[in-house]
Design a protein that fits this description.
It contains six helices and 14 strands. By secondary structure, the protein is an alpha/beta fold.
């Protein structure tokens, strides 16, 4: 069973529908016991980092997530991926979960072409830098859907794939141990995104 963490942030039911379309048993839950019983965990998220971290803290689930990340596959999506890192500099400095080394910074600071819009919104190809089981059904250069203004940096050792946005190499996918993260939305990325979710469910 795949548990989707419900902490008041994110389009949870779109993700759940995508997983169910693959024939996967899934549950949206904010219960610690349900997360412990799950085979895999997905941490979604949209919005601002500090607000999301506050809501996640309020659930009391942070120790559970840190514990379960050492036991089973965990996937962070979009803001959920950003929460995996050490810290974010979105409207101040906020601590992350520290599961993947690196920082979350404003994308606009690294764009010399000021005609490019932030947030980075739309389809972009994913360049695979390292082979990984997450890409079992995914081909290099396939297009995925992004909606974000901040991105992960200083995480080269964990980076699996990137997307180019102007002169910025946007960290698209990361892994450290049992923990994976994708900055894009696989549930909004058509057939390619569904194949990536299928691969995660088989990890």
């Amino acid at each position: 069973m795949v548990a989707i963490v419900d902490y008041g942030v994110g389009n949870l039911f779109s993700l759940q529908s995508s997983l169910r379309s693959l024939g996967l048993e899934t549950e949206v839950t904010g219960e610690a016991d349900h997360l412990r019983a799950a085979d895999r965990i997905i941490l979604p998220g949209v919005g601002a980092f500090g607000d999301a971290r506050g809501k996640l803290d309020a659930t009391g689930l942070v120790p559970v997530l840190l514990e379960e990340a050492g036991r089973k596959p965990l996937l962070g999506i979009c803001l959920g991926m950003q929460l995996l890192f050490d810290r974010s500099f979105e409207y101040g400095e906020h601590p992350g979960l520290g599961l993947v080394p690196g920082d979350v910074v404003f994308l606009g600071e690294n764009l010399t072409d000021k005609r490019l819009k932030v947030p980075h919104m739309g389809w972009n190809s994913l360049e695979i830098l390292r082979d990984d089981p997450l890409f079992r059904y995914f081909e290099n250069g396939e297009y995925v859907y992004y909606v974000h203004s901040f991105y992960a940096r200083n995480c080269r050792d964990s980076t699996l794939g990137i997307s180019r946005y102007g002169d910025a190499a946007v960290t698209g996918a990361v892994r450290r141990g049992n923990v994976w993260g994708v900055q894009f939305h696989p549930e909004k990325s058509g057939a390619a995104g569904l194949r990536l979710l299928r691969a995660f469910a088989e990890l």
